[in-house]
């Protein structure tokens, strides 16, 4: 799950879900410099690129801090 750290946003909700989740398959990412709305298009593009390039027998999609930081600087 992704949420921008800037207003308007739901950072408090993201942090609460992260604290309360016991599911190791869920990951919560606050994205510095993004708002709830400004993260949508760049995150969609990043996910689409990763989905299209993931051609192995099992899903192997991962994100890193650098990719998230670059989303809002482009």
Name the features.
single chain, 74 residues, mainly alpha, 3 helices, flat
Describe what you observe in this structure.
The chain has helices spanning 11-20, 40-53, 65-71; strands at 2-4, 29-31. With 74 residues, it is mainly alpha-helical. The protein has one domain (2-71). Strands 1-2 form a two-stranded parallel sheet. Strand 1, helix 1 and strand 2 form a beta-alpha-beta unit. The radius of gyration is 13 Å and the shape is flat.
Mean pLDDT score: 92
Kindly estimate the percentage of residues that lie in beta strands according to DSSP. 5-15%
Return residue spans where pLDDT drops below 50 for at least 5 consecutive residues: none
SSE string: EHEHH
Adjacency order of strands in the biggest sheet:
1-2
Instruction: Give the helix tally.
Output: 3
Total count of domains? 1
**Biggest β-sheet: count, sense, barrel?**
2 strands, parallel
Radius of gyration: 13 Å
Bin the helical content. Answer: 40-55%
Q: What is the molecular shape?
A: flat
Q: Could you say which structural class the secondary elements and strand pairing correspond to?
A: mainly alpha
**Cα-to-Cα separation, first versus last residue:** 21 Å
The total count of strands amounts to: 2
